[in-house]
Amino acid sequence: MISSPIAVHAASIPPRPSPVASDAAPSRGKPAAAALPQPLDVKAMRKEMASRRLQGVQERMRTLSLMMKIDSRAALRLAADLAKELKGAVKDYQAAGGRNVSAGDMALIRKQAVEAREAQARSETDRSAAEGAEDPASEPVPPTGVDGDADVRRARQAYAAAQAETAQQAVDRWDGIERAATADMGFFDRVKQLLGGLRKARDEIRANAGLSLHKPTEDDWKEADEAQAEVEREVATAAGGVGGGPTSVTV
Q1: Which of 50, 80, 135, 231 allows an S-S link to 93, with CB 3.0 to 4.6 Å?
Q2: pTM of full prediction above 0.85
């Protein structure tokens, strides 16, 4: 086995005696917590890559606008390529958990997030009221060693604390869902804008094809029509709703 350069370097340095006898020796073969690599959010990375792919389509749409005035056949072929690339970006985004969030979905998500925050505020009020009660530990214990009122107060404080923690978890969950849904909605809004741009470009190419020196062939149109139909279908059938669980939660 090949020794790590870090381990060889560390071995060449004499150990310093610990000033505190009770200090534990460092564990062998286990890196410090600060040195451990942070877990990667694979889905977020894949979404980012799909977004960059979408950005590439958007940039090439400018080239399409210029090409339409020069060469109708080349423009139509480029439109077909862009439709295929757009479909690939949508598929990649969905594979990473992205969803085609509608305005109705977003309204529901925001409603649930607001309700979770309101419930969390009420739970914090209840916890503060429970903690503000007279501290049972400061009260004299009866000779029998049993104080029913103190036990009830302790139970109420524990219950209020547990409710507040549960409410905070719901807030965190819905905040995360809202952030993800906002990003998803933004992605698919851009997709739909590009789809509209491709439709418009195809209409202009068809209208001006007779004036071009390089007219698209029937095969060119067949390929372009298939590519456009596939990306339209990919977007139309993209999963909507709320990802990661049910669309409602009781707090």
Answers
A1: 50
A2: no
